[in-house]
Amino acid sequence: MKSFALRTSRKEEMLDITEAVQRIVDESSIEDGLCCVFVPHTTAAVTINENADPSVKEDILSAATRLVPENWDYKHLEGNAHAHIKASLFGSSVLVPVVRRRLLLGTWQGIFFCEFDGPRSRTVSVKVLKG
Amino acid sequence: MKSFALRTSRKEEMLDITEAVQRIVDESSIEDGLCCVFVPHTTAAVTINENADPSVKEDILSAATRLVPENWDYKHLEGNAHAHIKASLFGSSVLVPVVRRRLLLGTWQGIFFCEFDGPRSRTVSVKVLKG
Amino acid sequence: MKSFALRTSRKEEMLDITEAVQRIVDESSIEDGLCCVFVPHTTAAVTINENADPSVKEDILSAATRLVPENWDYKHLEGNAHAHIKASLFGSSVLVPVVRRRLLLGTWQGIFFCEFDGPRSRTVSVKVLKG
To answer: N or C: fewer beta carbons within 10 Å in chain B?
Structure first.
């Protein structure tokens, strides 16, 4: 299991971590298998989506806030209940097949760390399984 | 890693791919393990849900559109921002345990390819890990 | 593959199953790898979120019902269409890295079974893969 740190700079943000994940696949000796990217946080998530037009990220973040507004009457009093809910909707892990040492992503796919309660120092865990 | 192609015929559609995935499990020599179904697209997804009453699929697709309407003021100008958002909400992969060469799905579960921006030619990747 | 049963006592409920999953990791002889928790149901899900303040669970369940109300005009006539939709939004599996026989969860993370159509007798399947 390998990890890397990242620093988010905004309250809500999607950061492309595809290259950092590919680097961990490179460093493993695994030719073929499955790569799991896991986020050990409860107000952040990881997702796969388009890495070409940056406006897709903005639309995803705006839609998330429209779906789960910050100002609903939440019981959790730390002011970040919406971020917890988004974390569960987007999910704490993604899986990508590895073929000949490459993440087998589609043409337009990138792996994104989703910050919903930043800015913060965050960690991403990556496990590559042989198979 | 094995892949298969499929052709969607509507703008939004859920296609039962359980048998196609089971066939790949059959062809692998793996008795027990984990099967990952991965969609290499950013306006489609894969999910597990009821395969008995077809109206469940209709309700899921209608709810997705009600949650994320096509006509919000998106920044992504290709007209399919809603499909990108749905893709991240439903997810790009599912995992199913494999026991004695069978996908260990519950009685009512099927694996569904979710088209959110069709009709299109699509690909599904399947990786079976031994364990 | 190991399974355990649980009984939900309310219509909607999030039950912390972290210890039950860790027990299965303990019983396996696997030092390092990946643990998959899979729910073989179509009106329940599994998610990872905060296990400290119990109000986070309440906020997640309330938000789910606010997003997908029970009384929309669904086609599925069993009265639980909303539960099926929530199941697909939250997902049927989670993955957690295993390091030195421990689930590598973040400080505030717990694994939760999500009941959306209870009370019922339910099953959770756990598969630990070496790697």
So the answer is: N
User: Measured between beta carbons, which residues in chain C are less than 8 angstroms from residue A91?
Assistant: 47, 91, 94
| B82 vs B12: CA distance, rounded Å | 11
Contact A47 B88 (CB under 8 A): yes
Pair A129, C34: CB distance under 8 Å: yes
Backbone CA torsion sign across B61, B66, B68, B74: positive
**Residues facing residue C2 across a β-bridge:** C126
Domains in chain A, please, with CATH? 2-130 (2.60.120.460)
CB-nearest to C99 from A1, A84, A130 is: A1
CB A76 within 8 A of CB A23: no
A18-70 per-position pLDDT tens digit: 999 999 999 999 999 999 999 999 999 999 999 999 999 999 999 999 999 99
- Among B30, B47, B76, B117, pick the best mutation site for testing chain A contact (most A Cβ within 10 A): B76
Q: What is the C-alpha separation between C66 and A96, in angstroms, rounded?
A: 32
CA distance C60 to A89: 9
Task: Report chain B residues whose CB lies below 8 A from the CB of A89.
Answer: 89
Q: How far does the CA of residue B127 sit from the closest CA of chain A (Å)? A: 7
